[in-house]
Amino acid sequence: MASSSAGIVTGLVTAALVTIGVLAHQASVNAPADLGPARATASPAPGAVKAPRDRRHPEALPAGSGTGERVVYSVDDDRVWLVGPGNKVRRTFEVTPSTVDPVPGAYTVTSRSNRVTGSDGVPVEHVVRFASAQGVAVGFSAAVDGSTAKPDPDRRTGGIRESRADGDAMWEFATIGRPVVVVR
């Protein structure tokens, strides 16, 4: 009987922990913006639409890209915005996308490397990683030789390439924990 009671208690504890985990995940994904950035889910939200843009001013910050200091990356427009205090764009620039796109959502900078070899074999500097997609680390980087060639479409790469000057600006701005918002 004691063995049977222990099994029931273990089952109840396990069920409670699973329920708490599911609720915690839902809360983190659906947290209001004023509680900090949420982690993006593994797939886009049903019915997700591209953030509206001011087509006369392609450098304008996308509507619905959040508030506060953050990096905004548009996977459709291949553009980045570094947004400072007061929702003011400090810098915007075009990038060369990787072959693997992160899912639109809210992330944070998780790691940085001053100089490494990119997944495409190119020496890069000022690597700022913020996501993982299809088993590949995704982040911003600048090729040491200054090139921004499009990656081989047959290779899965996560390096979003910037010019060296833009890479320097990203490196200074996007420290560990900085929010990164990915929009269509």
Overview of this structure, please?
The chain contains two helices and nine strands. The chain is α+β, with helices and mostly antiparallel strands. Strand 2 and strand 3 form a beta hairpin. Residues 9-51 have low confidence and may be disordered. It comes from Streptomyces salinarius. Residues 151-163 have a biased composition (Basic and acidic residues).
Q: Looking at CATH, which topology of the largest domain would you report?
A: L,D-transpeptidase catalytic domain-like
- Gross geometry: globular
- What value does the Rg take, in angstroms? 20 Å
**CATH level-two architecture of the largest domain:** Beta Barrel
Question: Mean pLDDT, as a whole number?
Answer: 79
Low-confidence stretches: 9-51
Structural class: alpha+beta
Domains, number:
2
Helix content: 10-25%
Proportion in β-strands: 25-35%
CATH superfamily of the largest domain: L,D-transpeptidase catalytic domain-like
Specify the CATH class of the largest domain: Mainly Beta
Query: Helices and strands, in N-to-C order?
Result: HEEEEEEEEHE
The N- and C-terminal alpha carbons lie at a distance of 58 Å
Total strands: the figure is 9
Main beta sheet: strand number and arrangement? 5 strands, mixed
Protein name: L,D-transpeptidase
Region (Disordered): 38-68, 144-163
Organism: Streptomyces salinarius
Biased composition (Basic and acidic residues): 151-163
